[in-house]
Structures are given as C-alpha cells and as structure tokens.
Amino acid sequence: MNWLKSTLSAAVGTQEPIYGPEAIQSVAKQAEETPYTVLSKDDLRWKAYQYTNVETQTFYIMADNGTLVMVQVIYSNIVGIHTTAHFNTKIFNLQGNGDHVWHSDPLTNFMFDEHMLSFGADNMTITLNEEGDSYTIKSTVNPNSLVDLKFTRKAPGFAVGKNGTSYFGTDPKNPWGSMSHAFWARCAVEGTITTKEKTYDLTGRGVFIPALQGMKPHHAAARWNFINFQTPTYSAIMMEFTTPPSYGSTKVNVGGILKDGEIIYAGAGNTITHTASALDPESEWPEPTSIKWEWTGKSADGQEVSAEVDGALGKRLDRVDVMGEVPGFIKAIAGSVAGTRPYIFQYSPKEKLSLKLKIGDTEIVEEGFMFSESTFIS
C-alpha cells in the first residue's frame, strides 16, 4: 500500500474502459486442470520485473503467548524508472487499550543474492536457507523495532493452479497485467522483535506469503478479503480479490487447508460472504461485522473436502486509511475522479471461532486463532 500512495498522483483520473470479464484469465481456469502446485525452491525467486509492479514478502506470526505480528518487505518498480523498497513491522494491540506498534521504513542499498532467493539492504536481510524450507529475517533498520526471526515450513508450500497467477488483458497471449500469490500456510516461528518498551517472544505459528501485483493496484482490484486461521492441528488460508467493473467485477479466490507435512486441500473452489455489515461513517464503506469463509474441493487422494469458518468478527483491530499520508488535494481528486478510497479493516476476534472440516466421512471441529482483513479500494 505504500506503493499505492507513491503512484497515486500519477494514476489519478485514469479509470479504465469496460473490457469485460473475458479480459481477465483467472487462476481458477488453471485450477480446473491443476488444482495446485507444490512450491519448489525455484518458485521462491524474486522476479524484480522492470515494468510497473509491486512485489512483497509478508510474514504473519501468531505467537503461543497470543501476540499477533506482521513483518513485510515491499519492493516496487514505478513505470520502470523508479525502484523503492520498504520494511514494515506491525505488532497488534489485541487488548484495545492502546496503539499498535507500527513502523514503516524505507530501505537503502537494497539488492538480491545472485540466485534471486534472498533479499538484503543496509541493516536488513531476509535469507532463504540452502534446503529452501526456512527464512531468517534480521533487521536493525529501525532501533525501535529490532527484528530477529526464523520461519520454518512445516507443510508443503503451494500455489493454486500451475503458477498461482491471474492475467489481465484482452489478448491472453500478451497480458498487460497480473496478480500472483503463493503460500507457506503452516510454519514454525522462533525469535523476537525488540522495541524500546520490551522484547516480544514470538515463538509460535506463522504464515509466509510471497505476492506480485503486476499493474496499478486500483486497476487490478476493487476489494480484497483475507483469512489466516491457525488451530493446533490445522492451518486454513484464503485470499480473494474482486476486480473493478473494467474486468467484470470478477472474483478470484485461492486458498487451502493444511496440517503438518500435508496439503489436505488447495484450490480455487472457495467463497467468502460478508453475512453482516455496518456502514463505517469515516470511510463510508460497509464494514463487515460477520463473515463466512468456505473451502470446497478434493484431497490429493480424491476425497471430498469441505471446510468452514463462520462467525462474528468482534471489535476491529484496526482501520487503516491507506491514503492518510497523501496530501489532501490528491486525496480529494482521487476520491472524486478515480473513485479510489482505500481502507483496510483488520480483525482478530477475542471469542475464538472454529474450523469445521470434513474429509470424506470424517468430521473435525477445532477452535483456532484468526487474523483477517477486508479491504475496500474503489
């Protein structure tokens, strides 16, 4: 979203024509033949394309002591002439009695290793090990957020379809944009983040998501929904975006259900429903108050799989005004001309929800720790 701020002034007023739903080649079409692909080490390479795009590596942590954290590096290229990188950390205040610990720092002298598998900058590294199953994240970029973390994959990584990518454009052989996600949905985490107030022990469970958005963000998606749900035995993940009307308000949904050492299901047969909402007066968006997430498909051995997380979201953790730091005149023009008004709503209910999972004739119900986001852009 830092990239959205930095490119918005150049993008204001550039609403696209109505191309129709045939101008997006959803990854769901790939998934009809290949539900998912297990990630190899090569699949984790940074792309660093030389055209307008934003590439991210995002790490979510649900510590055993209840701490919820996001760590992220954003690498972006604006029309092939200006490249930037940021390192973000957010320690959520789950008690609702104070601010979140949020830092977003520009990186200098950033670069990749020769294999494009690891990323570094002054006072910061994200390193993939030789086996390709563990990342080490170290940062002293911000003295108020000293990061020393290790993520170890405990279940196979996956991308939906053949490569996890949806393509935009009227000529499928020559797309003008793309959207790509991959997942390590079940990781073991060890390490700490140290602020000026305390050191946070982040031993627990984690998720790693590499993503690439190869076009202007408000052209690719008007809405986003995301859930990361962790139980003692299972991990459930889902990411959905809805295109603007230019591409037929098409929904693209990818996700999976995993446990240690195994992908139970992964594919595009998933749905998200905002079962209740209320108008948020500041953003003027219909903020969800209850959501139902559903996964449907088959396991690797052909059994029918269905899963559900359904319930009230409780008091939101945060409402992020993405354009809060953008000058007022740009914000006003963007909202009135381009219809761009991005807000992110983040949730982690105090009342635990349950994952209801059915594999063949076996039914399992487990309570878990949830983090979810609903984003409205345009």
TrEMBL record:
UniProt entry keywords in alphabetical sequence: Cytoplasm, Endoplasmic reticulum, Golgi apparatus, Lipid transport, Membrane, Nucleus, Transport
Location(s) in or outside the cell: Cytoplasm; Endoplasmic reticulum membrane; Golgi apparatus, cis-Golgi network membrane; Nucleus
Name of this protein: Ceramide-binding protein SVF1
Location of the Svf1-like C-terminal domain: 215-378
Entry's family note: Belongs to the SVF1 family.
Lipoprotein in keyword set: no
InterPro entries given in the database record: AttH-like_dom_sf (IPR023374), Ceramide-binding_SVF1 (IPR051385), Svf1-like_C (IPR033394), Svf1-like_N (IPR013931)
Protein role: Ceramide-binding protein that may transfer ceramides from the endoplasmic reticulum membrane to the cis-Golgi network membrane, and is thereby required for the biosynthesis of complex sphingolipids.
Domain Svf1-like N-terminal per the UniProt entry, residue ranges: 54-213
UniProt superkingdom: Eukaryota
One Pfam family hit: Svf1_C
One Gene Ontology term from the biological process aspect of the record: lipid transport
Predominant cellular place of this UniProt entry's protein: cytoplasm
Gene Ontology CC: one annotated term: endoplasmic reticulum membrane
Bilayer topology annotation: Peripheral membrane protein
